[in-house]
Amino acid sequence: MSAQLSDYDYVLPRELIAQRPLEHRDDARMMVLHRAEQTIEHWQFREIKTFIQRGDLVVLNDTRVLAARRFSDDDAVEFLFLERLGPTRWKCMVTPGRKMRVGATATIDAVCLRVEKITANGERIVTFDKDVDVYAAGSMPLPPYVNRPSDETDTTRYQTIFAREPGAVAAPTAGLHFTSEILSKIPHAFVTLHVGPGTFLPVRSENIAEHRMHAECFSVSQEAADKINNARRIVAVGTTAMRVLETATRKTKLLSRHVEPLSGETDLFIYPPFTFRVVDALLTNFHLPRSTLLMLVSAFAGREFILRAYEEAVRDRYRFYSYGDCMLIL
């Protein structure tokens, strides 16, 4: 076990950061990690059904990404609208922050907004002069490591095919690989976690145990809970689905894998050592160095094994991050 931030670092050549999706969703490569044997195999994502056994349940996050990225009318300020607080009041992130201190103004769709407050996390609370549908002309909020403006392709490809519950400002990227055909052939259930901007925020404390996650809204329906509790093995699609499942079982205060239907907020931070109660296998993309997501997969598969797999992925020229390839941890 390691609680030091520097122990979750690795070197990634910039050219391996995927800037665009592949032509077809299921074209991605899939590195398969066998935890018990400590072995690594190389497959294609479209072959995932090979690893789904009788009695398994694949659990996916059905959040829908909002077109939350807007620019001021003069293009001087970028806004990421996170939450509507009232008819004309919003919580948002802004770039550059120096232009939007308390009392500063800007216009969007010719409507003036004013910064009312700056939160402890640097988010802005802004008030418009009148109601504005900020999402109507918004664009997809691509992550900061995608070095291009979003375009029409991202409207569909930075969204899973099963997205139905609007509320995220980042995609649950492990789910981006699924096609309708693949999903129809495997037993599955949906949970919801609205991915927030905290997924991209760096861990700043050298002792990772001191890091605090941003709370994100989640829900588990009765239908999903019943399927999960009756499954032999749970395959979580993405770190967000894993966090929902491991949160839901802890909310029951039972030392078991039993999941109750519920909704609320979770700030569960999964890092080594962690006792997993629900999830038996995980499909996930490759994550940033020193990130909470890399710590989560390290808790699930072991830090040394994960870093060895990442070294192999770099050597074999896998595509990294949101539009990149994936990893199945068994």
CATH class annotation of the largest domain: Alpha Beta
Radius of gyration: 20 Å
Residues in helix, %:
10-25%
Tell me the number of structural domains. Answer: 2
Structural class: alpha/beta
Per CATH, what is the topology of the largest domain? QueA-like
Q: Order of strands across the biggest sheet?
A: 2-1-17-16-14-3-12-13-15
Mean pLDDT: 95
Instruction: Give the amount of beta strand, in percent.
Output: 25-35%
Oligomer: single chain
Number of beta strands: 17
Number of helices: 6
CATH 2nd-level architecture of the largest domain: 3-Layer(aba) Sandwich
The outline comes out as globular
User: H/E order of the elements?
Assistant: EEEEEEEEEEHEHEEHEHEEHHE
Distance between the termini: 20 Å
Summarize the structure.
The protein has 330 residues and is an alpha/beta fold. The chain contains six helices and 17 strands.
Topology:
Blueprint: E1 29-34, E2 39-44, E3 56-61, E4 63-65, E5 69-71, E6 78-84, E7 89-95, E8 105-108, E9 111-118, E10 124-128, H1 152-157, E11 165-168, H2 180-184, E12 188-193, E13 216-220, H3 222-230, E14 233-237, H4 239-251, E15 262-266, E16 281-285, H5 292-301, H6 303-315, E17 326-329
Parallel strand pairs: 1-17, 3-12, 3-14, 4-11, 14-16
Antiparallel strand pairs: 1-2, 5-6, 6-7, 7-10, 8-9, 9-10, 12-13, 13-15, 16-17
